[in-house]
Design goal:
Number of helices: 16
CATH class of the largest domain: Alpha Beta
Catalytic activity: iminosuccinate + dihydroxyacetone phosphate = quinolinate + phosphate + 2 H2O + H(+)
Protein name: Quinolinate synthase
Oligomer: single chain
CATH topology of the largest domain: Rossmann fold
Distance between the termini: 24 Å
Low-confidence stretches: none
InterPro entries: NadA, NadA_sf, Quinolinate_synth_type2
EC number: 2.5.1.72
Strand content: 15-25%
Strand order of the largest sheet: 1-10-9-7-8
CATH superfamily of the largest domain: NadA-like
Subcellular location: Cytoplasm
CATH architecture of the largest domain: 3-Layer(aba) Sandwich
Mean pLDDT: 92
Number of strands: 15
Radius of gyration: 21 Å
Length: about 375
Amino acid sequence: MPIAEIYGPDDFADRPKGQATPTPVAPARSGTLPRPLLEWTGEVERATAPIYERVKHVIPAIEWPLMAPTIHAINQLKRERNAVILAHNYQAPEIFHGVADIGGDSLQLAVEATKVKADIIVQCGVHFMAETSKLLNPDKTVLIPDTRAGCSLAASITGADVRLLREKFPGVPVVAYVNTSAEVKAEVDICCTSSNAVQVVESLNAPRVIFLPDRYLATYVASKTDVKIIAWKGACEVHERFTGEELRAFRDADPSVQIIAHPECPPDVLAEADFTGSTAHMINWVRERRPKRLVMITECSMADNVRAELPDVEMLRPCNLCPHMKRITLANILESLLTLGEEVTIDPALAGRARRSVERMINLKN
């Protein structure tokens, strides 16, 4: 069914001005390690050869001597710091395949974060992901290499907005996409990701559910359930730029091309797709189907990461880059491990409430 109602900041006259309050970041600790020499040596070449074998189809050989010394230094520092690197599917191949210990979508990273044994987590993703790792690992040090790595969805709604929605719809449960701040997570009943959004909504056994902040994911969920969805007017600045028209142009040029899309895309895009799913579901679809030619409607680096694994699949564009994901680089990952900055901290009173909504999602039975 269509979305029952949709609201945004302009619909609340008494809404406090400003965006979500960013989670504080602690200053870099003392104990900075010596800066390594980043040189292309025989040792570096030998140590990184297995990594380059994985990415040779997406990273030109001429570029590897520039990346490999930093990759080698990061992988050495991880052991020295007892650190683990979590990387989202949208990270560049040199990060996703070169230094990450765990890669995946938001749900995978949230689940894996609960299993981490290392003392330090370096989150290669955007800020709300680092917050989620901290919520689930309150006693561990969580670092994000660049605190400016934000998210248009997380910035579109505040905790005060959620409270206003609750006042307008008393008793209606609230589901928050994980692409939200800890402040927002503290005000909702349960979180979801794009891979389990329908399951989470239906688990509440309610006739109406407030679903925030992505209007397009809300539209997709509404099409898959009889639950009436009350949505928020947020959108992903990467996925909302795609159009059905550009996808139809690909079909006109080659009717055999396969198109898969993320549910954060507008409805006219999903209508042209052969498959719609989360980043993890999209990757699994490609692994199982092995299409000859594919248009993957999501962030560009994911197509590169999949092609590194499946070089026989020809990836056609369009794709859009996320400017926030691209703030994470090999250079600032190295800096983060050297200096232990920037550390994500969350007020314990806020964290306790936010943690419950994330844990309810993780503990939801499949």
